[in-house]
């Protein structure tokens, strides 16, 4: 055991105790047993991995072994046999257990151990074995170097801020002989425990330096599988993010296309509104305008036969200019006042008599009138003339 392992051991022991004290191990064990029960019988054997504890019993010079939790024991063998024979008998008794999962515990009888129940502060949970060293002189008649011991947390009621624990002590004299015999027989054990019914109690009286180290060949495979699972999980997350980015890019493209279509529709709507406005303007202009032909027809119907026009103009503002000759020009104002096409008729300048025709030459202007509204209107033709 190197220094790094010694430094990490307290943290690892603390993590193990916290894990065992939580309800998760029991839940996972129940969940796994329920799942395994659904499998075929062959598959149940294949998936029944994990540590399998087998308990060694020594009584009256006879050794026997049985699986923890089962009452059936193997055929006993005498401790007088030589080491190869004892190893062969033990291997035959545990032949149905995978060597990677096999764990051996020397099971002591109840009368060979001393058990004391303690109430300890919660802070002692992380270093129970050291607390057992301090409590040894107070709780037992032994010194620490005279016993094998272990201190475990037990379920049960305890005051607030304290935990219930049990100190299990076995004199070295009662255990060393069996350990020495097993050592000489070439049988390595993983724990010294005592039986609680058909199962082991769950303590290990062996000190940490005497614990057997196990090399788990499946640990490397499990580690590789865990790394592979982690990589696959990362790849799944990466693929998920990639798919989301592609979906987002596709949606962005659709949004850009729709925005371009919306801009085109806006431009078309604007053009339509402009065209509609222009068409409405032209229609309104046409409605509000008076045709020059209609004005000429109205003048023709109203002016007397002794009057003719030499010039007739209409500008874009609907201003009408009339120049001509009449036998009696002053009467034209009264005649045009009743016109529905013209309003505001008035002479410009003075009326002069033409010596050649002996008629009065005049020039007058007026404003076109909208026949529907009666308001001033523009002409549909910007300019008109008559002579």
From TrEMBL:
What are the UniProt keywords, alphabetically?
A: Membrane, Transmembrane, Transmembrane helix
Question: InterPro entries, per this entry?
Answer: ATPase_NBD (IPR043129), Extracell_DNA_Util/SecSys_Comp (IPR052534), PilN (IPR007813)
Q: List membrane-spanning regions.
A: 221-241
Polar residues: bias regions: 369-387
What Pfam families does this protein map onto?
PilN (PF05137)
What superkingdom heads the lineage? Bacteria
Region of interest: Disordered: 366-387
Record protein name field: PilN domain-containing protein
């Amino acid at each position: 055991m190197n220094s790094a392992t010694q430094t990490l051991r307290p943290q690892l022991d603390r993590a193990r105790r916290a894990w065992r004290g939580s309800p998760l191990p029991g839940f996972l064990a129940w969940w796994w047993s329920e799942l395994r029960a659904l499998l075929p019988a062959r598959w149940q054997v294949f998936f029944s991995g994990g540590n399998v504890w087998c308990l060694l019993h020594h009584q009256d010079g006879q050794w026997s072994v049985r699986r923890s939790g089962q009452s059936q024991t193997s055929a006993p063998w005498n401790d007088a046999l030589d080491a190869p024979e004892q190893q062969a008998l033990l291997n035959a008794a545990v032949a149905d257990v995978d060597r990677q999962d096999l764990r051996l515990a020397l099971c002591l009888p109840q009368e060979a151990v001393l058990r004391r129940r303690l109430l300890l502060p919660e802070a002692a949970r992380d270093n129970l074995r050291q607390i057992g060293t301090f409590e040894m002189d107070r709780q037992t008649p032994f010194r620490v170097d005279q016993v094998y011991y272990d201190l475990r947390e037990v379920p049960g009621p305890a005051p607030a801020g304290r935990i219930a624990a049990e100190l299990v002590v076995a004199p070295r004299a009662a255990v060393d002989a069996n350990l020495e015999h097993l050592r000489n027989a070439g049988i390595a054990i993983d724990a010294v425990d005592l039986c609680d019914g058909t199962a082991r109690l769950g303590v290990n009286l062996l000190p940490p330096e005497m614990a057997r180290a196990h090399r788990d060949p499946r640990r490397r495979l499990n580690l590789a599988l865990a790394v592979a699972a982690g990589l696959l999980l990362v790849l799944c997350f990466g693929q998920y993010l990639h798919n989301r980015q592609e979906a987002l890019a596709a949606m962005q493209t659709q949004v850009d296309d729709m925005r371009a279509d919306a801009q085109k529709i806006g431009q078309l709507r604007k053009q339509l509104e402009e065209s509609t406005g222009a068409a409405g303007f032209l229609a309104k202009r046409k409605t509000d305008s008076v045709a020059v032909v209609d004005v000429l027809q109205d003048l023709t119907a109203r002016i007397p036969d002794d009057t003719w026009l030499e010039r007739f103009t209409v500008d874009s503002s609907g201003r009408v200019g009339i120049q001509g000759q009449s036998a009696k020009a002053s009467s034209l104002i009264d005649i045009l006042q009743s016109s529905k096409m013209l309003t505001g008729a008035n002479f410009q300048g003075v009326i002069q008599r033409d010596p050649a025709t002996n008629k009065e030459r005049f020039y007058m202007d007026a404003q076109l009138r909208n026949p529907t509204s009666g308001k001033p209107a523009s002409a549909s033709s910007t300019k008109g003339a008559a002579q």
